[in-house]
Amino acid sequence: MTRAAVTTDAAGSAGTGTGPGGAPARRLPERAVAPLRGLAGIAGLVVVLEVLPHTGLVSADYLPPASETVGALWHLLAEQTFWTALGDTLTGWGLGLAISVVAGVAAGLVIGSIPVLRAVTASTIEFLRPIPSVALIPVAVLLYGTDLRSKLLLVVYASFWQVIVQVLAGIQDVDPVADDTARSYRLGTWGRLRHVMWPTALPYVMTGVRLAATVALILAVTAELVIGAPGLGQEIAVAQTSGAVPQVYALVLVTGLLGVAVNLVARAVERRALHWHQSVRTEVAV
Amino acid sequence: MTVLTVLRRALLLLGLPVVLFAVWWFATADSTDFYVPPLSAILGAFGKVWTGERLLSDVVPSLLRLTAGYLLAVVVGVGLGLLVGMRRVVRDVLEPVLELFRAIPPPVLVPVIMLFAGIGDTMKVIVIVSGCVWPILLNTVEGVRAVDEVLSDTCRSYGITGAARLRHLVLRAASPQIVTGMRQALSIGIILMVISEMFAASNGLGFTIVQFQRSFAIPEMWSGVLLLGILGFLLSLLFRFAENRVLAWYHGLRRAQRNP
């Protein structure tokens, strides 16, 4: 096993040395096999979920067979209410994320570039950040009811901190030599912000946005589930109280797929925005 | 001179919080808004509500469930993560499935788990585990995968295998990543502790706060919100303290690498 791995490795590095034409055929399967294995994993999960309720180990009342869940999902897709709910969830998520990214980046840049402000606010940020946003649920209910605003309150509170903390870390990472150079070339505050701080902070900002996107989805669905704001979460609550178990599973599956999609999109955006950054880094590494 | 620096630091640390607190206090001092009671009323309610038997009947059960769920998630997450991370085939097979499970917003699992486990303590612990386990698991997998090859080969050539290799090489090398996962899991755990109690419970912090809100006991409700905030802050402080002890070697290494 080890020996085989070593030889493919050696062949691989030789292949990159001689160019793509010299790459041995054995290298390709290794890369193609991983997605196949992943598919096998998904298929295995589906089979287990299908068989388990039939064996009687788990009651089909609690865990409907995979085929029933998919059937329920199929029915949902044909219903207008499902699409409205999906739209509501995405609206809350997108608006909340946009607000917290803009506010977080703006506040982070201002606080981060003025040392006094940073020193003064550090303790407050450290105190406010770990406050669980679900603590605000009762407040949101009282102030806004099941409105979109109560969803936004929770989403923004949770994801704002993810962004601002990353922006602050990014600005702290600015190379002092680069900053001094910019100063001696008489770049103004705006110029240094634009050409020195922003490029340094961008990778951190992107990490913050990615984390915030995930957190925002969690809080949007939570608000719907617990408060009853319209959206997928509320649909789940309704399906659960009316005992429509396959629908519950189908909706949970939808939120999971939504989460995967959010992850993929966030990573794609990150890769695109940091294209220059990563290419520079790999060049240096080689 | 030293007195001055201490004073300066204290001012920086406490200045803004004191100002904000004062603003809150005076802005609401003669507030007649039913929903925004004066801070003095909230603090009065805080002293009354959370010091007596409620501390034992609501706060302690919540914290116990959180502790149980969190520790269980750490054990399961790290254990499975080691298994998955060390075998390439297992990792390839399970990765998409795990990504899907991680992407499901954890609160959504509350109704599903209620089907299986009813509404007792078991349900709440399972809910916390089911939410906390994913960040720990996936970070462990990443950490195990990123073990330094040279170290790995060195271990092999010194004949360090089995449990010793696991303990001294794999776990050690993955521990910064594992701790990152544990930090993410802690905030998820607090969220799930509160939500599982808001759903169905007869005691606990989330239950009590929602109860106050529904009976329009507004100062009491605000005091609960305050308590949750303090709890989140204290737990993150505790976590950072533990992290600084466990990962002292790692942070020292990073510092040394940054300013040689």
From TrEMBL, chain A:
What membrane topology does the annotation report for this chain? Multi-pass membrane protein
Under the heading CDD domains, the entry gives: TM_PBP2 (cd06261)
The listed locations are:
Cell membrane
Where along the chain is composition biased (Low complexity)? 1-13
SUPFAM superfamilies xref list = MetI-like
**Region annotation Disordered: where it falls in the sequence:** 1-26
List the record's Gene Ontology CC terms alphabetically.
Answer: plasma membrane
One GO term (biological process): cellular response to sulfur starvation
Keyword Lyase attributed: no
Q: Which keywords fit this entry according to its UniProt record? A: Cell membrane, Membrane, Transmembrane, Transmembrane helix, Transport
The ABC transmembrane type-1 domain sits at 86-266
Residues passing through the membrane, by range = 36-55, 93-115, 201-227, 247-266
| Assigned protein family | Belongs to the binding-protein-dependent transport system permease family.
User: This protein is called what?
Assistant: Nitrate ABC transporter permease
Q: Which organism is it from?
A: Streptomyces lacrimifluminis
Q: Which gene encodes it?
A: ssuC
TrEMBL record, chain B:
Q: Which residues cross the membrane?
A: 63-86, 107-137, 185-210, 222-242
One biological process GO term for this chain?
A: transmembrane transport
Which Pfam families has this protein been placed in? BPD_transp_1
Q: Which UniProt keywords apply?
A: Cell membrane, Membrane, Transmembrane, Transmembrane helix, Transport
The source's domain of life comes to: Bacteria
- Where in the cell is the protein located? Cell membrane
One cellular component (GO) term of this entry: plasma membrane
Membrane topology note: Multi-pass membrane protein
Span of domain ABC transmembrane type-1:
59-243
> Which family, according to UniProt?
Belongs to the binding-protein-dependent transport system permease family.
Protein name according to UniProt? Nitrate ABC transporter permease
Organism, scientific name: Streptomyces lacrimifluminis
Q: Which gene encodes it?
A: ssuC
